[in-house]
Every structure is written in structure tokens, then in C-alpha cells.
Amino acid sequence: MIFGLTFPETAVIGLLFAAIQFGAMIYLASLGEMIAERAGVLNLGVEGMMAMGAVGGFVFAIETGSPWLGLLAAAVIGGAVAMIHGLFAVVLGANQVVSGLALTIFGVGLANFWGTDYEGVRPEVQFVDVDWGPLSDISWIGRILFQQSPLAYLAVLLGFVTWFVLNRTRGGLALRAAGESAATADAAGHSVLGLRLFAVAIGGAFAGIGGAYLSLSISPGWTVGVVAGRGWIAVALVIFGAWKVRRVALGAFLFGLAMALPNRTESFDLPWDPILWSMLPYVLTIAVMIAGALVLRNRPPAAPAALGLPFRREER
Amino acid sequence: MKSTKSTKALLRLLALLMAFVMIAAACGDDDGDDGSADDGDSAVTDDAGNDMADDDMVDEGMDEDDMAEDDMAEDDMAEDDMAEDDMADDFSAAFLYISPIGEAGWTWAHDQGRLHAEEATGIPTFFVDSVNDGSPADIEAAIRTLVADGHDVIIGTSFGYMDTMEAMAAEFPDVVFEHVSGYKANETNFGNTFGKIYQPRYLTGMIAGAATETNQIGYVAAFPIPEVARGINAFTLGAQRVNPDVEVVVQWTSTWFDPAIEGDAADALLEGGADVIAMHQDTTSAGLAAEAAGARWVSYNSDMSEFAPDAYLASAIWNWGPRYAEIISSAADGSYVPGFYWGGYEDGIVDIGSIAADVDADIVAQVEDIRQQMIDGTFAVFSGPLFAQDGTQLLAEGEVMDPGMLLGEAFFVQGVVGDIG
After folding, report:
1. Do B288 and A219 touch (CB under 8 A)?
2. How far apart, in whole angstroms, are the C-alpha atoms of residue A8 and residue A13?
3. Which residues of B touch A306 (CB under 8 A)?
4. What is d(CA A214, CA A221) in angstroms, rounded to the nearest whole number?
5. How far apart are CA B243 and CA B236, in angstroms?
6. Does A13 lie at the interface with B, CB-CB under 8 angstroms?
7. Tens digits of pLDDT across chain A (316 residues)
8. Which residue in A51, A112, A274 is closest to B130 by CB distance?
9. Which residue in B22, B42, B265 is closest to A263 by CB distance?
10. Which residue in B34, B254, B263 is closest to A218 by CB distance?
11. ipTM
12. Does the distance separating the beta carbons of A223 and B102 come in below 8 Å?
């Protein structure tokens, strides 16, 4: 007991398990958004792409009987939907904020429409938590780290791959160049449009996987509103994480905690108003953005310099 | 230089926008359906047309009505009015739902009621689904479309529709409006309907109380309002009837409809030692969590046994059909009188769903006995001696809770573990 609060072992383990689970789901979407933004494309359509991934993943998993095919479909669908943003914001140079918002509205609406016949259908196909054998039996750590959904490990893997590709490969350098100074990348012989479209597609695929995490693992099944604003948190996390993989991962875990803690007020005997508790993730978002703005006020901006700017060759 | 500046401006705009979205999302949790907020407008018109056309329960005669109505919707206002007169003898009713119908849950139960009413009265019925109850503009647009389509009765099945329906009832005095779960009515064409779902909750509490081996039941609760508290208290009293040592641990989610959160709250309760889960929200995720953990589950709204066949114990269910038939037929023959309807077992608006096969026969017999007493109107769930959570006596021996206290229940009874906020 610390400061009059109780910390029952099972509740702490459960909290950390859930925080990683929720965190990994948001992390996937956030990672994708970060890739797009590093290439200079702001995509506010994450919520819509996650919804499409959630419904598409569930539909394909049910129809094929395999959660992995569902996951693949979710990634493809997320990437395909992202190409709408790619067409307008990248190819045609339209305003990225407007195009992204439109993608969210369109994606959520289309997902709801597509999912009508799958609403509340029994999730006969879903991901089963991984059993790592002896590792999973270790006290505390075993439950928290080694009994997660396969998608949690996929999120970690994709995080490493993203970091490596962005920072240690020529392609990653070109992609970052497209986001920092598109004209320079162009002069260096790279196709800015190609790089940006690729980044947006990958971003969409990651968001789709994040959505499928919800519909195939965390709360198996499709219902309207299953994404419930988490796509927006993923966008906020990129800013929180200052466009860096590690910080985005840390931020995602914090948001996972903020999502899981209000569901355990009773386990921890916390007295506060339940509705105030459920505001925690959002309050945290606003607090982090204010704090970030204050701390980073006098530093060079962490954002890619060409973020949000359409590239047209003749205007360089 | 220039590009950095505009990036900053863009980021500033984005930050502002996101702050708005965050606030909207935080507030939106109350209606439990923020996901559909964005597409509300399109759902109103599109769903009205598509859903009607897709509805396979609609008979052939009604398909013609459908087509007539679809045509009408495309015509301009003047023609609408004419068409409305033409259709004066085609009495019809329309329902507003907060979510898609799905295969179980709150809206599914209402839709079963609609289908029953259609069969019982022979009056065609229609529905619009996914009408966000947190958006008065969406609700109003949906109602105006339905009125323009010539519907004579409009039944809204989510709490948040109340104020808009009240205003629309004043604007369209010839249309009967009936609102489910609110607390408002007028004297002419706006009535209120709800039911004593706490009665079957008491019965499911008995079954859960007998099923628990840890003497700890987890209750995934929605919002700390009287309707939810009443359900928790009735459930607890039922559980205590068969198991005096039982505790009901309440975890709030502040959601009506967020499967990820509700499943996680159930997990937390199971980790805390509960081996039976009860819930109040509109999703099945608490049941899926119980099924995955090898625990048991009591469902709400409709019989959800097929979603978690091993976990499922029993369910407190709604049977809206007879009431809807009554509203629609009385509106059709002009005898409709608005008021506050709060029916119970005696009216058949609530009941208990199927009971799992492994429930002890003796418990099933006890449940059947109390159920019969409820139907006969001789059993009061909230009767003395009744003690509050902190041990203060609420009702003396032989006393029955008066309706005012029942409707305003903002406390927990003894045996409930948790804060009511």
C-alpha cells in the first residue's frame, strides 16, 4: 500500500497486459502515420482507414476462416483506401487536411455500410494469444509480455523494421528527403510522388492492421464505432513522439495505460468519478500537446520541414 | 524559410482541430456511438431507402409502398404534400434506432418489437438505423424525412432522442411520437415508454448467485444513472436470495457501446476474482471475455446464448412487441393517449431469456416461482428489510419501495462493491 492506494498483484499485471495490448494497437496506426508524415504527407484519415481495416479484416477472416488472411486483407484494404488520399493530396496536390478529413468521414461511413451484414456476427475466427512455452509461465513477465496476441509482436517487429528502413537504408533516406525538402529529393533523382505514394500506402496498411487488431483480437467482431476515436489518438501520438519510432512507442504505451486504467478503478480501489476517468486519454492528449509546445518552443521544429506541402516540380 | 512558416501554421491549425476532436470525442462517449457521428447525415437518407428495400421481412404489398415512398423522397416539397394526402389511408409507423440492428442487443430487441407490431396490427413499419443520439441535427433530419415520407407514428428508441422528439411533436401535431427510455411527454402526441427490466435482472441474479463459486460476481456497468443502478441492485438482491455470501463488484466503463473497453473491464473483474460477469452495455464483448476466461455470463437486452455458448447462463430481455402494437394500433384508430408507460412482467414487456442447461433444477424452479409471482404482480423486488451499501436501513420489514425512490435510485444496496460516483 502506497499513499493509501492498493496495488493487488493481479490487477497490476492485468493493467500492464491491457496497456501493451491497447498500446500496440494504437502504435501500429501511429507508426503508419509517422511514415507518411516523414515523407511529407499529413494523413488525417487514420480513423477511416482503421475502420476499413477493422471491418475488412473481420469480413475476410470470417469468409476465409483464417485470421491471417483477414489481417492481410485489412492491410491491403487500408493501403488501398489510403490511395484516395494519395490521389488527391499527393498526385493532385490538394489540401492534405481537407483530403485527410474527407478520408476519415468516407472510410468510417463505408466501413459501417460494408459491415451492415456483419454487425454483431459471432466472431468464430479470431487471433489466439501466443504461447511462448516456458517464457509464458514466468511470473509477472510471462503474462504481461509473453501471452499477447500475435499482432502485438507484429507491432514490435514493424517498429524495428520501420526504424531500420527509415534510418539505415538509402530508400529510407530518400523517403525522409521527400518529407524534408522535396525539391532536393527530386534533384537527387528520386520520384517524390512515388516515395510519397508509397509512404501513404504503407501508412494505410499499418492503420488497417491496427483496425484488424480491434476486430480480430481485442474485441473480436464488427460493430459500428469499434474504432471509437483511436485513429485520432494515433495521429496525435506522432506529434507526441516527435516523429521518432521510439518515442511513438513510448507514447503508445502511455495511451494504452490511459485506456486500461479507467477499466480498473474498482480493482485499484480508486475513488474518482468514472466519467472523469474515461476522459483520461483525451486529457492526456491535450496536456502532452501543450507541454510539447512549451518544451519545444525554442528548438528547431521536429516536424519534417515539407510536411503538408504538396510537391509540384515547376514550383520548386 | 517560407515552407517552415506554412508548416508551422498548418501544425497550429492541426493542433486546434485535434483539440476540438478530442473534446468532441470525450463528450461523445456519453452517447456511446461516436463512430457513426461522421456519417450521420448520409445514414439518414441512404439507410431509409436501402434498408427498407433490403428488408426481407417486408411483404410484397409493402414493396409497392416502398417504391412509392422512394419516389416521393426524390420529389420536391409540393408534391410531397400531395402524396401525403394520397397516402392518408396508408397508415404507417417508423422507428429510429441508434445503431445497426445486428444479431442481438438493444436495437435488435426493438426491431423484433417492430416486426411483431407489424404482424399484429397489419400496419406497415419502417426504420432508420444508426441515428446518432448525440446529434440533434441528425435526429431532426431523420424525423423530418420520416414525416415527409408520410409516416404517422414515429418511435425513437434511444435516450438522447428525447428533446428533439419533443420539439418535433410540437411542430407536427398530426404525428404520434413515442420515446423509449426518457422522462418527457406532452398531452396530445408525445408519449414515453419504458419497462421494469430490473424484474428479470433479479431473476438472472438468482441464477448467477447460485453459479458463482468464488462468491464474487463482476458487473460491467455503463453510466451511474438510476436505470443502471436499479439493475445492479435488483441483480444483487436476486443473487443474495440464493447465496447470502455473494458480492457484486461493479466496474464502470462510461460507455454504452465500446467493445474494446467493455471487454477489458470484464477482464479486469475476472482477474479480480469474479467468476460470473453481468453487464449493461449493448455489445457482447463482456460475454466473449467471460467465455475466453472460462467464466460464466449473464447477458442483457436479448438472449445472447449463441455468442458465448459455454459462458452463457441467462439473460434479462426486452419484449417490446406488444407495447409497440398497442401504440401503433391506438394511434391508427385515434384512441392514442400519451403518457408515461412503465410496464413490467405483468405486461410481458420484460422477461428472462433461455436458461443454461447446467443450471441446477432447484434454482430454475425457484426462478420460475418468482417469475410467476412477478407476472401475477405479487412480488416486489425492492421491499423491506432493505439496506444501503453502508448498512443504513432503507426500507423496514414489510415496506415496499415507492415509485419515486425506485425511479431515482442513485445508491447501491448492501452487497454491492463499488462507487456510484
Report:
1. yes
2. 9
3. 3, 7
4. 8
5. 10
6. yes
7. 455 567 788 899 999 999 999 999 999 999 999 999 999 999 999 999 999 999 999 999 999 999 999 999 999 999 999 999 999 999 999 999 999 999 999 999 999 999 988 987 888 899 999 999 999 888 889 999 999 999 999 999 999 999 999 999 999 999 999 999 999 999 999 999 999 999 999 999 999 999 999 999 999 999 888 898 999 999 999 988 889 999 999 999 999 999 999 999 888 888 767 778 878 888 887 887 788 778 777 777 778 999 999 988 876 4
8. A112
9. B265
10. B263
11. 0.89
12. yes
B177 close to B186: Cβ distance less than 8 angstroms: no
Tell me whether A243 touches chain B (CB under 8 Å). Answer: no
The set of cell numbers assigned to B169 is: 411533436
Measured between beta carbons, the chain A residues lying within 8 angstroms of B101 are 119
Indicate yes or no: CB of B254 within 8 angstroms of CB of A262.
yes
Pairing of strands B393-395, B386-387: antiparallel
List of chain A residues whose C-beta atoms are within 8 Å of the C-beta of residue B263: 218-219
| A219 in reach of chain B (CB within 8 A) | yes
> Least CB-CB distance to A119: which of B100, B264, B265?
B100
Backbone φ and ψ of B125, nearest 5°: -125, 155
The domains found in chain B, sorted by start residue, are 90-195+322-331 (3.40.50.2300), 198-310+350-417 (3.40.50.2300)
Domains delineated in chain A: 9-315 (1.10.3470)
Q: CB of B312 within 8 A of CB of B305? A: yes
State the residue for C-alpha cell 438505423.
B129
